[in-house]
Write a structure and sequence with these properties.
globular; about 220 residues; four-stranded antiparallel sheet; alpha+beta
């Protein structure tokens, strides 16, 4: 199996191969893993696939993802690990920064030069062999040249300060009538980012994630 073959299998279910790397001792990868391929979603592409295949079960998105990625990883001769595995948890954000040109944004999320803040990492495929991988894209963070940084000034309750994220204030706002816009359309600070405007999540996709965020804090 090649990297391109794995990417094609992921694309068939709306997921994306997000680059990869050959782990060293400091990367906290499974001990027998010689190649890591990051798996995620970008923009709205995977949402129709999830909607068509979701089941009435707890943690429906995680369960759907595992069904897809476990199958693709086994076909590639490897196995999948997930952000929810643990504790101890795998350092997915650190892995992502080794695999792709993603960088911490002022609101904490990793920003991509093309997809902005509208992407996520859902799994990693581990392989026993050192698979040839695409070279890492070395583009800098788009935040470097963003003078206005509207992500820091758009939140209705000032939950993002550049030094931290006030989770209780955010969650409390989302439970109010004034917070309906953020719940139904997605985080207003995230939407304010000028990168990847056309790649915002699909209708219903942002609401799914926001409602899950609130439910986890009820």
């Amino acid at each position: 199996m090649t990297y391109d073959g794995i990417a094609a299998d992921l694309a068939a279910v709306g997921l994306a191969a997000r680059g990869g790397f050959h782990p060293g001792p400091a990367d906290a990868a499974p001990t027998t893993c010689r190649s890591v391929v990051l798996v995620g979603n970008v923009g709205p592409d995977f949402w129709p696939h999830f909607e068509a295949g979701r089941r009435d079960e707890p943690n429906a998105l995680d369960s759907w993802t595992k069904r897809q990625v476990d199958r693709i990883a086994a076909k590639a001769g490897g196995w999948a690990v997930y952000p929810s595995d643990g504790p101890p948890y795998f350092p997915f954000q650190r892995w992502a920064m080794k695999a792709e040109p993603v960088h911490p944004s002022p609101i904490g999320m990793l920003i991509h030069p093309d997809f902005g803040l509208w992407h996520a990492y859902r799994a990693a495929i581990c392989l026993h062999d050192a698979l040839p991988l695409p070279a890492r894209d070395e583009r800098p963070s788009p935040c470097t040249d963003c003078a206005d940084k509207p992500c820091l000034t758009t939140c209705p309750v000032g939950a993002f300060t550049g030094q931290g994220y006030d989770v209780p204030a955010c969650a409390a706002h989302l439970r109010t009538e004034d917070g309906r816009d953020c719940v139904e359309q997605g985080c207003r600070a995230r939407r304010a980012c000028p990168v990847a405007g056309p790649d915002l999540y699909a209708a219903g996709q942002a609401a799914f994630h926001m409602r899950a965020f609130v439910a986890a804090r009820d």
